[in-house]
Amino acid sequence: MNASQPGAATGQPGRPAVVLLSGGLDSATCLAIARSEGYACHALSFAYGQRHAVELAAAGRVASSLGAAEHRVMNIDLAAFGGSALTDAGIAVPEGPTAGIPVTYVPARNTVFLALALAWSEVLGAQDIYIGVNAVDYSGYPDCRPEFVEAFERTANLATRAGVEGGGGLRIRAPLIALAKAEIIRRGLALGVDYSLTVSCYQADARGRACGACDSCRLRREGFAAAGLQDPTAYR
Description:
Layout: E1 2-4, E2 16-20, H1 25-36, E3 40-47, H2 55-65, E4 70-75, H3 109-124, E5 128-130, H4 146-159, H5 161-165, E6 171-173, H6 181-190, H7 215-226
Parallel strand pairs: 2-3, 2-5, 3-4, 5-6
Antiparallel strand pairs: 1-4
Helix pairs in contact: 1-6, 6-7
């Protein structure tokens, strides 16, 4: 694995926090919330073999727009395992609602992401890690539930020097966990998020244009409609 820093910025005041940033609507809102709470935000994105890698360019735009103190992109190869429509070209992305846990679930993705964010947080001396998971308007992924977030926080405080010597002060922050998509959008707009910079589609083309048919597109479109707002997404 390796990491790069496309356009890191310096000089932002405040305590450090690591923010997982995919380039989508939820993570952009999460970054805006963390910054509004006074943190110097160290944004972390992953090139993990996802078919919608164009989201990484969106993550860079969002990090710059929202004044992240730093933005790193780490390369990991979850596509080596496959098992998901997002990392295996042989599995089609469903176009329409599905029952149960969908094939767009990437095995252990958020566990891996949080573990790497935890490692960076120790180096930075950060006690807070932000993740934009949501358990209301989401696709049914098991690693987006409050139970998972709470369990990982316990693990973080057991497994790290910062957790043991710091008296269990590490926190996994999931400010969107109980919000509907429309509420997330309104919150983000109030904090200055430009959603036209984001990419949510699971099969966006090289220009970032969305398919309009996958589950992520559906949830995004319905969220803007419920909020009574125009969706700025560029659709194919």
